[in-house]
Amino acid sequence: MLKPEEKIIRHRDLNWLSFNERVLQEAQDKSTPLYERLKFLAIFSTNLDEYFRVRVSQLRQMKRVEKSLRKKLALKPNKTVKEILQEVKNQQERFGKIYREEIIPELETAGIFLVHREDYSDRQEEFSRKYFNKISECIKPVVVDYEEGGDLFLENNQLYFVVTFAYEDNFAVVNIPTDECGRFITFTSEEGRHQITFLDDILKVNIPQLFPDKEIDGIFEIKLSRDAELYIDDEIDGLLAEKIYDSLKQRTEGQPTRLLYDAKMPVEDQRILRKVLKLGKIDMMPGGRYHNFGDFFSFPDPTNNPALHYEELIPVKHKILETADDYFKVISEKDQSVHFPYMSFNYVERFLQQAANDKGVREIKISIYRIADESVLTSALLTALKNGKNVTVFIEAKARFDEKNNIDWGRKFEDEGAIVIYSYPKIKVHSKILLVTREENNEIKNYAYIGTGNFNSKTSKIYCDHALFTAHEKITAELSRVFNVLEGELIIPRAKRLLISPFSTRKAFTDMINREIQNAQLGKKAAITAKMNSLEDQEIIDLLYEASEAGVKIRLLVRGFTCLVPGLEKISENIFMTSIVDRFLEHGRIYIFENDGNEEIFFGSADWMTRNLDRRIEVIAPIYDEEIAQEFKDILNIQLNDNVKARIQDPLEKNEFVTPKPGDKRIRSQYEIYNYLKEKHEA
Question: What positions does the entry give for Mg(2+) binding (predicted)?
Fold first, then answer.
C-alpha cells in the first residue's frame, strides 16, 4: 500500500491503461464465448488507437510548451509518454500472446482456421491470384526514394505494406484496401475445415506482380495514427459548425502520434522509414505481423455456431409503456423509467412518434450528442416538421469522430424547417434531454425525457444507460430553461431541482459532500454511493478524501479511469471502489447521498470530471418517484455486489477480480439486472 506522504492523485492517462487492461482480461476470460473474446481484442485495439490519437497527441502538444512554464505547471509530458509506451508495449505483448496461444487454437478446435500465406495450398494460391486481379484497381503502390522521400502520405489508421528491395535506393509502400474489400476472405471449406485468410496475406503473395523488375527483400505491415483534434480558433464565434466541417481534413492529415510496424522489420529499414516520414524514435511502436485488430468486429463465423457467441437477451417489456396507447396519459399519471440495453430504445422512439403525430403537441426540443444514421428517431422528427410542429434540435458539432454525421443531419433538419442550433466554441452540450410541449384543456403542459445515454438506437443495444420520462411541473419547467440557455435566451437558468453544468452542478455536489462530512462529524448517518464512467476532478477528489477522513463511507463504481486512489491509510481508507467490464459498456451515472437517512438520489449525463462540471452543458436530475428511486437503488446495489465481472481498484492498480466468499451466490450484475427487471416488469 502507498504511504500517505506519497502521491495521492493518479495521472489520468496512465490509469486509463489500467482500464484497457480490464478489457484485455475479458479477451482472456475462457467463460466468455470465443467470438466475444475476439471482440474484446477488437475493443482493446480500437481503444488504443483513439488513445494515441487523442490523449498521447495532447501530451505531445504539451512538449511544445516552454520548458519553464511546463516546470511551473508541474507538467512532465516526456516522462509520462515514456511510461505510457512501456506499459503499452507490455500490454501489446500480452495481447499477442492471448491471440496466438489462446484464441487461434480455440478457433481451430471450433473448426475455423486462419490460413497464412506461407501455408496456402496450390488451390488457395490460385484463388489468391484471381482475387488479387479482381481488386487490382484498389491497389496503389508508391515507390519512395530514400533521400527525397517523394510525396509519401500515409492516411490515418490505414494499413500499408512497406516493400524493401535488394540493391536499390528506394522502397515501396502498398496500401491494403480493407475499406473497399474487407479484411477477411473466406476460402472454400475443405473436409469440414472452415478456412479464412487475411486480405493482407492475399496481397503479400501477389506483391511481386507489382514490381516485376525488382528483387524483393522484405514485406512489412505498418499503420500510422494521427492527431484526432481539430485545431480551430475557439475565440471566433459564428459558424462554428462550418469551421469544423471544413477542418475535418485536418484530422486525416494531422500530426503523426504513432507508427505501428512489424517488429521483424530490420533496424536500418526502420531508420529509413522514420526519416522519410519525419518521425522521432518515440513515435515508433513495434508490433506483430498484423495491425488494426478492430477489424475483428467483423470476423466471419462460417460455422454459425451459437455457442461461439453471447446468447441473445430479449428486451424486457416495460409493464406500463409496452401496452400504453397514450404515453402522455401514463407519464402524466406517474414518472416512468427505462433501462438500456435491458429494455428497448423503441419506447423513446414511440414517444417521439406519438408527439410527432399528436394534434395537441406544439413543440419538440431535443439535444443530440451522437446522432445515429437514418433511424426511427430521425424519421419521427422529420414527421413532426411535416405535421407543422415547431422542432428545435440542438446538435453538438464537436462530438469527437461524429462531427460530420451530426452536421449533415443538422442540415437535413434545417432543410425541413427545424430550428437547428450548433454548439458554442468553448462548450460542449453533453446532456441527453428531450422536451415536448403539449396543449391540454387550453393549458400548456410539458413532458420531459432525461437520460444518461445518447439518442441512438444502435448504441442503446450495447451501452448500459438509464432514463426517465416525467411530467413533473418543476422539473419540466427547469428543463425548459436549459433549452432557453441553448437557444441563447438566458445566461444562467434558475433551477432548484436539476443540477445543470456549468452553472450549478459543481456547487450542488460540493454542498452535498460537505453535508455528509458535517453529518459524520456530528455522529449522524453519512455515506456516498456513486457510479460513473470516469473520476478526475481534483476538487471533488480532495473533498472525497476529506469525507473519508471524517468517517463518511464512500462506495464508488467507476468503469474507466480514476485519478482518486482508494484505500490509502488516513486518506482514503473509507473509500472502496470497483469497476465492471462485461458484455455491455457501463455508461450510466447515479449518485446517492445518505443525508442522515433522508436519502437523495440523482442520475444524469455528467461524470465527476472537470469538463463535465465546468465546460459542458450537462443535466443531472433528482428522482422523486419512490418506486423508481428504489428501482435505481436496486440496480446499483446489484452492481455493487458483482463478484464475477467486478475488479477492485486498489492503490497498486492490480485489477484483481472481486471473488465470492464460500457459500456466496455468484453475481454477474448485468445478467442479474436483466433478471431483476424481467421479474419486476413481466411478472
Answer: 370, 400
pLDDT digits (tens, 9 = 90+) for 661-680: 999 999 999 999 999 999 99
Q: Is 559 annotated as a binding residue?
A: yes
- Indicate whether 310 belongs to any domain: no
Say which of 430, 466, 472, 681 is annotated catalytic: 430
Q: Which domain holds residue 420?
A: 327-494
Would you state the pLDDT for residue 278? 86
pLDDT tens-place string over residues 331-363: 999 999 999 999 999 999 999 999 999 999 999
**Start-to-end CA span in the chain (Å):** 48
Q: What is the CATH number of the domain that holds 149?
A: 3.30.1840.10
Q: Classify each residue of 453-475 as buried b or exposed e, where b means 16 or more C-beta atoms within 10 Å of its C-beta.
A: bbbbbebbeebbbbbbbbbbeeb
Q: What is the mean pLDDT of residues 442-465?
A: 95
For residue 322, tell me if it sits in a domain: no
How far is it, in rounded angstroms, from Cα 196 to Cα 38?
15
Neighbours of 297 (CB within 10 A): 14
Q: Residue 123 and residue 578: Cα distance in Å, rounded?
A: 53
User: What cell numbers appear for 283 in the block?
Assistant: 513515435
Is 587 annotated in a binding site? The answer is yes
102 plus 159 within the same structural domain: no
Is 308 a member of any domain? no
Question: How many residues make up the chain in this entry?
Answer: 683
In tens, the pLDDT along 484-508 reads 998 887 678 889 999 999 999 999 9
Is 274 labelled a binding residue?
no
Residues 373 and 263 reside in one and the same domain: no
339 is catalytic: no
Residue 319 lies in a domain: no
